[in-house]
Design goal:
The complex is a heterodimer of chains A (about 110) and B (about 120). Chain A has no helices and eleven strands. Chain A is mostly beta strands and about 110 residues long. With about 120 residues, chain B is mainly β. Chain B has no helices and eleven strands. In chain B, a hairpin with a 6-residue loop joins β4 and β5. Classes of the chains: A mainly beta (about 110), B mainly beta (about 120). At the A-B interface, β4, β5, β9 and β10 of A face β4, β5, β9 and β10 of B.
Amino acid sequence: ILNVEQSPQSLHVQEGDSTNFTCSFPSSNFYALHWYRWETAKSPEALFVMTLNGDEKKKGRISATLNTKEGYSYLYIKGSQPEDSATYLCAFRTGANNLFFGTGTRLTVIP
Amino acid sequence: GAVVSQHPSWVICKSGTSVKIECRSLDFQATTMFWYRQFPKQSLMLMATSNEGSKATYEQGVEKDKFLINHASLTLSTLTVTSAHPEDSSFYICSAPRSSGNEQFFGPGTRLTVL
């Protein structure tokens, strides 16, 4: 079992604030790092798949960076909106298709 | 993105009964599907890999005779929890990778409660 940690566990921000959270993972045997957004009672939604050290990806107000040498990825949300409220999961992949998940960061955006 | 459905979304059963959960890829074919389990306050943990046309492979500590997996077609995998006990109460979720690209697509999950 590989150790994937996410912090913080939960986060409350005001609407309009920008925020970020961290995913740390083993720095060896890296293949890809996945970010998912998971709303209650829905399927986890793929946000990013990151494969290269130094990668930065962006989707609207959400962006992510990747450092495979030190084993961390940051997810940023600019100008948080109530609809951004969800649990954000990261998952580390070594090469096979199976993913090793963190426990997630639960974000609540207060209107 | 691709769509994966899962049925039922929740189920309550008595101890000793068997429960079948279905995972379907609706708009793509999946030769491989994955079954995960999540206990409260823990991360999603891979239970087994379902392979179309061959036996499933199970992660360490997951009993293959208790969690029966059948990948009957390129769009359907089923997980049957046999002789369920209260400690099997958990959230079960499946995923399927598309043959092209790195993404995996998840179903919405099934909440199993065994009384």
